Amino acid sequence: MKRTYLGEFEEIVLLTVVVLETSAYGVAITHEIIEQTGRSVRLNQVHAALQRLEEKGMVHSRMGEATAERGGRRKRLFTITAYGEQTLLEIQSVRTQLLSLLPRPLKPSLSI
Amino acid sequence: MSKHSKPEQPQPPYLADKLLKWFCAPHLLEELQGDLHEEYYYQLERMGKKRANWHYFREVIGFIRPFAIKRKTTPPTLPSTLPLQLDMFKNYLTIALRTLWRNKGYAAINSVGLSVAFCISIFLFLTAYLQLTFDSFHEEKDRIYQAYFFSNDPERASRSGGMPMPLAPTLKAEFEEVEAAARVMTLRKSSVAYQDKRMDKEVYMTDPDFLNMFSFPLLKGNKETAFSDLSSILISESLAQTLFGNDEPLGKVVQIGNEGKQKGYIVSGVLADAPYNSSIRYDAFIRIDNHPNFTHDQANWGSNSHKVFIKIAPQAKQATLENKLKLFSQKYFSSNIEVLQKKGAKPDKLGDIFALRLQPLTKVHFDTEISNGPPIAIVYALMGIAFFILLIACINFINLSVARSFTRAREVGVRKTLGALKSQLFVQIWSESTLLCFIGFLVGVLLAYQLLPEFNTMFNAQIKLAHIWEPGFIGLIVGVFFMVTLLAGGYPALLMAKFNPVEVLKGKISLKRPGFLRNSLIVMQFVMSSLLASCTLIALQQLDYLRTRPLGFVKEQVISIPVGNQENGRQVLKRMRAKLATDPTVLAVTGSGINLGRGKDRVTSRAVIAFTHKGQQIQTDWLLVDYDYLKTLQIPLQEGREFDPAYPSDSLDRIIISASMAKAMGGQELVGSYLRNEADSAGTKYQIIGVVPDFHLYNLSNGVIPITMHLSNTESIHYIFVRVASQNLKQSLDKLQHAWKEVAPQSEFIGTFLDENVNEWYREEEMLSQIFSLASGVAILLSCVGLFAMALLVTEQRTKEIGIRKVLGAGVPSLILLLSKDFIKLVLIALCMALPLAWFMMKQWLNEYPYRIEISLWIFVAVALAALLITFLTIGFQSMKAAFMNPVKSLRSE
């Protein structure tokens, strides 16, 4: 099966797109991530990630409507694609599976 | 969300925005800038303007990442407006090729015309180039001069290049500016022998300075010592090859000199062969001290036997030196000045009656008096004709393009409405014509390459296409090519680019109005071609007149045989007489010192002497003849008798003179009287035994020359003339050749008929008139091609009109007249301008000939009729086609 690679940051952005549903665009996504994770994220990083995600086919975009604080410019609204959802599920299942295989306690063994 | 809509609302930093616009890909700009602005206002509220601005900056700079930056292959940008972008140019080329392919006929007419014009002008330019670069290969050419005497004779100021023996050494000794001086002397061809090989070659006599002056490369031998010995000989590469093959030539001994007077010379060097454009064309050089009369003439300032070249110091000036030479002339040539003064000579504007002057080496070739090159006007005429022909081809090109531009107006209109700029249209149409020009040029060069051998044999020229690669010539060709494309392609392109699209698409651009420019161009074309045609006709007539004019002797059926230097002419003549005595087809045999006309040995010579008779100076040609000279050449006797072996003293001091000599002596009944040089106290008295009518020893352009014939027992006979009676001349020639082997075994038989020899006198005129004929033929042809194409276009454009006229009852003749009358009118105007001009020009030219034709009116009538006829035929064909066309067909279309 073809493996899909998704960077950690990309994964977060993708998840945020899902969370924001119909109003996922650059600024909103950035603010949501800052709010939810506490990381200091910048617009340009988010845009770069969104660009890559779109190239990989994880998200789909269309131009939305304009608002005043944007000086009459339109926003690009992102929605997740079925493939993106599938990928997220796969990542989750891999993690769950791996976590279930962990010996307890979750400590590295020091014995040689 | 919108809380900031007041006008004093702070804006994101302008510079940052500008930066973003600059680097950001256009299709991303809107969303990115939107997001950035939104973020800015968000931050503005939270942390104030300063920090928000700072934040904005950092964000913008953060966007300098691959995905956001403009890349070259980003989705389609707007087409550039620059006309000369490379891919656009490719596009123009494709379009041009397609258009040309669609209009094959038009393209063919144009490129054929251009290629013929280019081919001819390449030939003419090459010929002119070769002439203009004569002697320019010498490295120090700017410092080399040929000395000549100027004498302001009251009859005619003249110049002469023959110098006395002591001149060169004296010049070198008396003037420090003169770095080197070399006497250059050639007699008739000398016999060169090595072992059993013998041949006649051009052996020059010169001074050791020769090698320091001229740049003929010395291939073998030492420049310093090559001429140090009196018996040294320098030979040319090709002579070395013929004499010694692949053997080492240095140190070999060759015999130079005519029979009985041979001397051995040691080869001390091998010179490269002289290039074609060299005035000095040699086979070998020996020291001038070897000349038989050297010791006698060494201090004789009165002899004029050779050319003198001098090289002046780099800082010296010609004018200064010539000024100093005035004193020099007064010192050494006082007697010449006195004689001239007695005759009534006045000083010229430089204050000289007789002076030694200098001609720069590069001009020597065109100085018809001191060298035998063509007058420089001829070279310019050739170049002028080349330009004429190119111009005619250009005019064709322009006319056709302009005429066709009306048919193409719609295309231009559509392109313009679709947004094509004027500059783009110009480049597009111009590239089309440049392509045509280029094709024409390529075909022309190929044609020239193919026809070069024919051209060379036809005009006896020596041009080589290799000269094309010389920088001067490349410059000329590139210049001409650009001129043609600019002139022929540029104007129509400009015209079409200027069309107003609205008017074009409404159909308001007139299709029929010929335009002043087109008419004047056609007129110009015909002025040039009829000018050339009438000049050529007159020149041919004059040439024919010179050729057929009686020369005073009968040149038909006489064979002239050069004796060569290997045999004694007197002995050969004696044996020849004995051998042919019984042959019934041989009418007479004689010998002479000079040839008549120019035979295969290419030698012409002349001996002139001056008598002071009854206080008057008489110049006469001094002609050595043998018994039967008058009989062989069928020169009648006016008075007296011919030389006769029965009178022994005939070969001592008896002479026969020509009528103009008799006139110069101022008398009737001269037979029996004496001619003697009164100035010469010991002078022999010559008794006149006969008078003959004038005859021409030389080209008719020399006019009538007084001739004095004498016999001799000792002077060399160089030519043998044989008059044959046979109808089969070829057979006679073969018979003579056979006999020659026995009477003169050492000498090659190069006999020719006198009438052929005489024609050779006019070779230059003939070559020129042939070039003129070719040029005028091409010019007329090109003009006709242009006219034909023009007629084609006009009838095409007027098809509908013709149809309507036909339907309304116009007859075929009136239609043909309608179509051709415009062109006929133009040709008539052209003729009115060209013919008087031709008359004037040829009048000037003919004035140079003492024997000349009167320009007859019928030549102009003939040229005019021919021009009109050709025009009518060219256009008539098209008009006829149009007139006979079924009007239903032409009216139904569209």
TrEMBL record, chain A:
The record's section on Gene3D superfamilies has: Winged helix-like DNA-binding domain superfamily/Winged helix DNA-binding domain (1.10.10.10)
Q: Which domain of life is it from?
A: Bacteria
Q: Which residues form the Transcription regulator PadR N-terminal domain?
A: 18-88
Q: Show the InterPro entries listed in the entry.
A: Tscrpt_reg_PadR_N, WH-like_DNA-bd_sf, WH_DNA-bd_sf
Q: What is this protein called?
A: PadR family transcriptional regulator
UniProt organism field: Rhodocytophaga rosea
